[in-house]
Fold each of these.
Amino acid sequence: MQLSDFHYMLPKERIARYPTKRRDQSRLLRLVRSTGQISHHRFSDLPDLLTSQDLIVLNNTKVMPARLIGRCLRGICDQSRITKTFACWIEVLLVKPLENNVWVLLVKPGRKVRVGDRLQFGKGQLEALVLEREEKGLRIVRFEYQGDFDSIVDQLGHVPLPPYIHRRDERQDRTRYQTIYASKRGSIAAPTAGLHFTPGVFDHLREKSVACCEVTLHVGLGTFRPVVNDPIEDHRMEAESFEITTEAAQMISKARSTGQRIVSVGTTVTRVLESAWRETEQDPQLRGETDLFISPGFSFGCIGALLTNFHLPCSTLLMLVCAFAGRDLVFQAYHQAIGENYRFYSYGDCMLIE
């Protein structure tokens, strides 16, 4: 398939720049694959759309305030003495840790940050030495600090809102760009399909005897790197780390063996499940990395329903949704959602595909 097959026009006013006042008052479009039927609901209606034969799987990753703004300092040799001089202001995104305080960063403007430069954040509470230059604006650095790294990042960092929101992060984003069940720190973006859940929704699910379990996938650049190849099948995802507890694996394996429907909350959960159970019926890979790219023609072996937000044109996320429900049916639903004034993207509304 060609990249142009996944393009659609979205009015700018349909992009949600802020979350709804109440999480569970987001709108929910229900799409039934077997009939093409579309219906419109509120997210608070979700428990009534499911049954006790469903197993909901959530991604419990936690978003870091991974966006840091600082200065690039460069060593200059002057009469056999090395001095630090101010080179430029920079913005970095903490992509993933390697080992011993060594991290991969996405740097902007990347062309101005060289190997050997020092990056300084805050009033020097956090510094980093640039060790290696990678392609696509990536740098490998070693951080230097006194105290607890996570606490320093929490103090200095900003919520890494997607660029299409077109605003600076605000205090409410610390909680609203985070699921209420987030517990495993490590993502640079929220698993947005889970942003709509509230304690009340979980209470209602328990009343309906709908079971839930959690897996972890730390959202990284792989989810958001644009597809630039034609045909799209040539695209290669960057790996993202995942983990499944033994208890969750047992629940999911039992659901698969008994015919219980697995409801995947988001594209990240889908990629975890379809990766972990791809080569086996019962004994999944419990931890590792996945670079699975799901596009039309993919054979799903695990999930039976998908809860997901509305995604950007030509994105790997939209391609995954089209693989699950069929491109034509998904685009019919998207066009109806646009006509019905649904809110799109990370802080927007969602759809349940059955």
Amino acid sequence: MRKLNFPTAIIRPSRTLGRYTLTILSIPIVLAIRLIAPFVLVRVGYLHSSRIGHFAADTELYLLETKELKKVSKAKIQDFVCYREPVCNRYLGKMWRRTNGLTVVPVPIINAIYRVNSLIPGGTKHIAGLTKQHDRDVSGLFYRYPPVLSFTQEEQRTGELLLRDLGVPKDRNFVCLHVRDSSYLANQFPWADTSYHNYRDSNIEDYYLTAEALAMHGLYVLRTGAIVKSPLQSKNPMIIDYALSGKRSEFADLYLGANCYFCISTGSGFDAIPYIFRRPILYVNLVPIEYMNTYSLNYSTVFKHHDDSTDGQELPFVEIFTRQAGRCVSSECFQSKGISLRDNSPDEIMEAAMEMVGRLEGTFLESDDDKFLESEFWRVFPKDAVDDHVGMPLHGQIRARVSITYLRSNRSLLRVQE
């Protein structure tokens, strides 16, 4: 038998006693919650706070779904939630605390009430923090509602000073550039094997051409990231490696993501910040294809190339969907489908970025052939795709675009000839 040291021998029983005590005390609380439900609907639960993508997007959608519920509920709704450690961005947690109808309480209290509530039939409607859509706005709530969060005047002043300190002049537009690599998860979750995510990685060097083109157009470029593998090396003062600047903070991440002209992302957690603040997003090197965000006209997407592992030939979209690789969420899945992923070229990324600039400025024009190419993509795209893990639809009304410059250069993926 393993011998416990003296402090452990005391702490473990005391924790167990505390858990039992809170559970017993929660019984009358849960009964009271059930009794007042016709007048005040009290819900308890957890926010997915360990990953920024979920902490931002899931919480936004949950709160918007609550707004929808309040329209039809005869009872007032009051939610009590907790954050589970590790909390990925405590400043975001602070901002969520300001939300009306949402109260954050200690984890042990929520654990006890949640435990008792789950043991008594009829407890489902008293669960808070869950969204029917996870981080996907299938119902078009972002389209109908403004952002839940906003910055105070003091926070706005702090953010403006941050931009000046980074070298971005007042009233100048900037683009956030977020390129995923494996460093963050490896650092934050060293005990877990997160290598199955590596199919989503990209090389920051492939984005130098894009950064220079944007800077030449007069846009500042801020490379974001909490922990990154390699620097964005540039002598151009309009290209700023904010991730390695020494000025990065949790607040700054939120402010930059919320105020960027648009964000270029490879489909990683940071882009949930511009996502919930309704900023335009260009997704590049995106996989899996069927998980593209389709909910806003301000989204444009470029996909990684899918090559046949046997003969090296690039697969057209219809073949990717036929092999059921459009919903692969691990490197092993693509391998099992006989597919090797290849990153977008620097030129593809740059052309898509300048297309986004042109769309935002109203100078990018589509020809009839461009419209035909995009219609061909949506003709073969599985609009009725369902998330294999949660059984929910991946798409609602399709509003987003596939980059036209990408489709022009890759007509063969649509099996359309010149």
